[in-house]
# Entry
Amino acid sequence: MERARVIAGLMAEACHELHSAWAPACRLRTRVGSGRATWHRYDPRRDDHCITIGALMVADKAQPALCGGWLSMREIQGRGYFGGTVSELNLLAHGCCHEFAHLLQTRAGGRRYGQVHNAVFYQWLDRLHQSGSATTLRSRLAEAAAAEGLPLATTPVTPAAETEALTRFSPGDRVAFGQGLQGRIRRVNRRTCTVDGTGPCRGRRYRVPPRMMTPIRETEPV
# Structure
């Protein structure tokens, strides 16, 4: 988790570089959050923009089994950003651009309630990529992470293949996972399974990626 927090801090710094180049007249604060929530918020009373980078979001995007549920992956593949290649580095660099595009969208008056990811937003996001700013940010983020001894993976990943692994599981299946943990699947979600612990784990509930689960035959004791 410490790795994720450090990288989230580097992403926050990268957002300030975009701010200096694209909107230096406005005020921007950045912060690292402890959860997955990553967002841009604008306070019109203070004319203050704030971008929060979630550490758990950073951790998710290092894992093929989890990154497939994020909008960043769909935008990279669907709009051809970074050549349509999904990798940890590309996901995180694009995440910075995504949140900063919300700042530009807000300043342009293009953000309305219920219209967050609208045409105005994608016009700004496209401009960040087409101008080369996204590529420059990606390079600087990679260099900063490497300097911290935390290199970001550039190997292409296929989240869809990991997501397909969920089709092997159904509610009611018994599974083993982690270090000696076991349980029964309660629900199959988009990226993980909700598992109710059994045996020594009874009374606990877990969210488990499919790659971490092994089916248990019903003849084996719970």
